[in-house]
Amino acid sequence: MTQYCNNCYSKRTTIRKVASINAFIGFLNQHYNLTIRPIESKIKCPLPLPRAIPLSAIENTLSVIIHLASSAKSSYKHSMLIRDLAIIEFLFATGVRVSELCALSPSDMNLDTGVFLIRGKGSKERMAYICNDEALDHVRNYYYLFESAILENDALFLNKYGNRISDQAVRNIIRKYTPSKEIHITPHMFRHSFATGLLEAGVDIRCIQQLLGHSSIQK
């Protein structure tokens, strides 16, 4: 039966159908005192590869924000664009999770060296690095523009009300500047793009996993 299913359905569909049949067999065995053996299947569904954002799409997004900031007619709009630019640059340059970005405080960073203390899942700490001078300059420009509010709220990235920014606010920012029809860009895809870039540059996968703060590059 498993062989027949393999010829008709995808692996994922076959696994789901076998699981449904086995659940029904378990029901029959339990309620009618039967001893039907469940179907054995060695089919394994391959893990989906994480999707990365094309570099051209990231560069285009950054260029759009820079252009909008340079032509902004109000200081408020200009400052918000500078913040948005810093957030997107930070996500792409460090590969941090959105929750980790939102949790950053001014005491967690060294703007001279581009080193940031990241507090990840399970209270684990690691260092993140912005090695690109242009990206670090964008974060610096944002910090100096909002320095008083950042220090007052003890939060590196702020929302439009001057409080610590939320995960959802960051997602809204990304959605605002990346309305691509070909690819739905999510904050987590910046993380995969960061990892993909390092892999293509020949960085050891174990080093990448440490930078991501996870045991698996898939997550």
Characterization of this structure:
This protein is mostly helical and 219 residues long. It has two domains: 1-46, no CATH class; 55-212, Orthogonal Bundle (hpI Integrase, Chain A). The protein is built from nine helices and three strands; from the N terminus they run H-H-H-H-H-E-E-E-H-H-H-H. A hairpin with a 4-residue loop joins strand 1 (109-110) and strand 2. Helix 3 (55-70) runs antiparallel to helix 4 and helix 4 (75-94) packs across helix 8.
Characteristics of this structure?
mainly alpha, hpI Integrase, Chain A, 3-stranded antiparallel beta sheet, elongated, disordered N terminus
Chain-wise SSE layout:
Elements: H1 2-8, H2 11-32, H3 55-70, H4 75-94, H5 98-102, E1 109-110, E2 115-119, E3 125-129, H6 133-153, H7 167-177, H8 187-200, H9 205-212
Helix pairs in contact: 3-4, 4-6, 4-8, 8-9
Short description:
The protein has helices at 2-8, 11-32, 55-70, 75-94, 98-102, 133-153, 167-177, 187-200, 205-212, and strands spanning 109-110, 115-119, 125-129. The chain has 9 helices and 3 strands; from the N terminus they run H-H-H-H-H-E-E-E-H-H-H-H.
Proportion in β-strands:
5-15%
SSE series: HHHHHEEEHHHH
Give the overall form.
Answer: elongated
Query: Which architecture of the largest domain does the CATH hierarchy give at level 2?
Result: Orthogonal Bundle
Number of domains: 2
Question: Gap between N and C termini, in Å?
Answer: 34 Å
In round numbers, the mean pLDDT is: 85
Instruction: Report helical residue fraction.
Output: 55-70%
Poorly predicted runs of 5 or more residues: 1-6
CATH class of the largest domain: Mainly Alpha
